[in-house]
Give the backbone structure.
Amino acid sequence: MIDIHAHILPGVDDGPADMAGSVAMGKIADREGIEGIISTSHSKEAAALGREDMQARLDAVRAAWQDAGLTLRLELGVEIFLQPDTVDDLQAGRLWTLVESRYVLVELPYQPWPLYAEDALFGLQVAGYIPILAHPERYTAIQADPAKMYTLAARGVLGQVTAMALTGEQGPGTKRCAETLVRHNLVQFFATDAHRADWRSPRVSGALTVAEDLVGGEAVRAMTETNPARILSDEEIPLDPTQPTQRKGLFGWTSRRP
């Protein structure tokens, strides 16, 4: 598995406090079968430090992990808090893509859904970038209507589901939404969004079992291996979304299985 969303750089954002904490994360990831990680610190802190500094910090983590006997591939990215001027920041070099590809990992406020979101995502695409929406299962607008993610996917926006969402560790509503997005091919990546060894750690085995029960091993391999490898080689990722149909139940809106 290649994890495209993880906070592994010590002392940068709300990830590990020090290098020992980062190494501890690496050991967990290694035991879980993760072979590569794209480091995605939050854009506010990453932009303040600058790309050169962030690359140096990643190189230091590489060295520390190698000294600990870890062989995971580590690459540089950033998790961008999407704003109307994000394209300007990318083109000016204040922010950057995943592994120097066209792919950009973006997040939004969990609520409310920003009025600028669709225009900002479209602006990225017009500029030649391919947006990946981080953890769409957490946004209350998508939880209320997963078809909102279908509308984005139909326009070429990709999605990344988080392991802990599928295991229910982020609440039942988030789990239901994550399952719906996975079933309907509305997310193309499976990631940890790991932060520390003792909080939101890079554990994936339980969530992978849930995902395989939902869509089968081949689809899970696409989310964990094939599609992340396409980021590394900057290749196109095919989309085949299906629209969730909704029904009103006792506990609110739920998605029918396809």
Notes: Strands lie at 2-6, 36-39, 73-76, 79-81, 103-107, 130-134, 158-162, 189-191, 246-249, 252-255. Confidence is low (pLDDT under 50) at residues 248-258.
